[in-house]
Amino acid sequence: MGAGAEAPEAEAVSSRRGSTVPGGDAAVPGTGPALAVLMGLSLSHLLNDLVQSLLPAIYPLLKQSFHLDFGQIGLLTLAFQATASLLQPLVGLYTDRHPLPFSLAGGMVLSLFGLALLAAAPTYGALLAAAALVGLGSAIFHPEASRVARLASGGRYGLAQSVFQVGGNAGTALGPLLAAFVVVPHGQGSVAWFGLAALVGLAVLGLVGRWYAGRLAAAPRAARPRSGAAAGGLGRARVVATIAILLALIFSKFFYTASFSSYYTFYLIHRFGVPVAQSQLYLFVFLGSVAAGTLLGGPIGDRFGRKLVIWGSILGVLPFTLALPHADLFWTVALSVPIGLILASAMPAILVYAQDLLPGRVGLVGGLFFGFAFGMGGLGAALLGELADRVGIEQVYAICAYLPFIGLLAVFLPRLR
């Protein structure tokens, strides 16, 4: 493999020591995290996901303007998630062999085009095309950005993934808030103003790409590590089974999260009669707790182990999800905080666990898991939208409350070195 791969012996050492190959996916030993690069990645992730989060944030506005039903709302999310999901593993697989430092900025350009089309879309078909373009930008951005985060980690892989991912969570949380104060009062066309965020993201990613290109140039191609066997000497069948378990946990997490990101505002409006702008603020509370959970999950996994975080985050949320459908408005908002916090702590731990399981496949792992996560979010949005049309939005949350039971599968995850 190319610069994106790392030797299996590099994974056998402590995560705090990193790789001995400067062109690999791991950090150079004896160095700390490249904080400026990690912060640049986090900021660009914030701006990228801020642009992407505008789509679900303005669903109530689009539903009214284009006379959409819940099924059509779900298809909008599916159009975004399908391109983001299906292409990410392919992008990751390619960049494992052929790293593309400036593809990060290219992904932001596609998101910018999608945003411009979203602002001016005259028909439902144009909305679907805009959503697909934004998803394509996401598919290009995430796998390579995840690799750069690992390269800049200084061996603290969980911390690096948390810093990187929390930017995306913060952008996702800010989208509904800005939509409430900008788009809802001024209409669909005001979405175009968020193109400024994409332009700032382009500038930041240009600098990150230059740093990444310099790291690649510092290691001769022949010296770059190649992919090796799975960590801990696990057989192929055990590796495949472990990946399947991790993907099942991702399914549980993101299928449930889709009920919030796409339909929480409708749930609050329908059940408690809150205004649209106020429902966006309550969605911001949930998404802010998701950002906090993401930031905590990686460092806790670095210190106490990924499996412990995965086990606690997926199954530990169950009491709160079971209580939420029976709560009043105050407790609904209050319960959304631990739900977001606990659920979100899983993603950095799952991603680093999978990277440790498959050394030298960082791009593929990032593309597969981010892509599957987006795909489950899109599929969840589409299916839950149809379910809401048939049985009502309140019943959706009563059914989804049981999804965290899938977290019991974490008991079958092997302990990695």
TrEMBL record:
GO MF terms held by the record: transmembrane transporter activity
InterPro entries named in the record: MFS, MFS_dom, MFS_trans_sf
Disordered: region residues: 1-25
Sequence ranges of Low complexity compositional bias: 1-12
Transmembrane domains' residue ranges: 70-87, 99-118, 124-142, 163-184, 190-213, 234-256, 276-296, 308-324, 330-352, 364-384, 396-413
Keywords: Membrane, Transmembrane, Transmembrane helix
The name this protein goes by in its record: MFS transporter, FSR family, fosmidomycin resistance protein
Species name: Methylorubrum salsuginis
